[in-house]
Amino acid sequence: MERQKSCNLVQELPVVIIGAGPIGLAAAAQLALRKVPFVVLEAGAGVAANIRNWQHVRLFTTWGNNIDADAKQLLERQGWELPPVTELPTGADLISKYLEPLSEVPEIKSSIRYNAKVISIAKKNQDKMKSANREQVPFVIYIHGEENNSRLEARAVIDATGTWSNPNPIHTEGVWLQDEQLLQDEIIYGVPNFEKDSIVFKGKHVAVVGSGHSALNTLYELAQIKKTDAATSITWILRKDVALTYGLQEKDSIEARGSLGVNIRKLAEAGVIQIKTPFYIHETFERDEKVVIRGELLGREEELVVDKIIANTGNRPNFEFLKELRLHNDPITESNHHIASLIDPNKHSCGSVPLHGEQQLRHPEKDFYIVGMKSYGRAPTFLLATGYEQVRSISAYLSGGIEESKRTNQECKPTTCG
Question: How far is CA 172 from the centre of its chain?
Fold first, then answer.
């Protein structure tokens, strides 16, 4: 009887969503429509703190692919109008035209706490080793706020924190070394705002490290700078066959992504971009106000001297605040174990990623879910539409819609995974 009473009390607690980005706010919208109490904890001062770091970048996919259906329903109740569905939004557009208005709808606004950084999550009165009655006790979330620390109990937790704030190093073995950390002023992580900061790169020798779409975007923007200042030099450092980075080009079902691949191939063929592959970076250091990149190229020691490095080497999830929870992550991708084989870049390139939901995102810690970009671990193939489907399924499950949670509502085209 006491155990049943305890379970009932836990079920009355809110679902806690960590992160007020597109996936976290979609989860909030879906829970709101299902009348499930929730709290959104956002470490930043406003919504979409991660996106603000790349707000100058234009997405490959249109508005029609980037808006959650339940969020749209809540917005339209407030008189919101959908931007042109065929338009490609920038990160700034996504914030101002979608995420900020969504955060202001009455069903969500009062449930968001800003400047609330989650520092740890545990089960009440239990550490990771304790198993007795573990599923019957609530989660306890420890929060670092502007003025003090606090704790909040929850019936379920949805981690939608993403990976943007945790970039990979440029070192080939994936380890953070002091030599790289000492070059904070010379290495830029992510895609710079070239319109704002072009002076930083004009007339300089810039090395771009990485082979994904961020690297291709960076290379394209640097090439535009080189058109106005021929002294600008661009070196592209990667490990794979460069032909593999161009993607499907004209055959890509996402036109903007295909066009980018075509443009970079043409720039490389024209000699605008100097390519070093397979280049394995072992060391970086400063010498005579330049940056030296030392490593191995085609089996021989190679040394490059540049002015700036732009690191587009991807990101990795942060599990530091989850150490007291029982997780089941894949040892290769660091994604949820159940979806790893679908997204592992060692096995998977541009084939379809089957949509997945609550069942595939479960961990041994019942009612704890990692969603969005972070659910993919280190794999680079995530799309917003995938995350929206993840949290739709989880929200259905948490509201008692077990059968609804097992169904998928959307279909990905075979080449939309990246």
Answer: 21
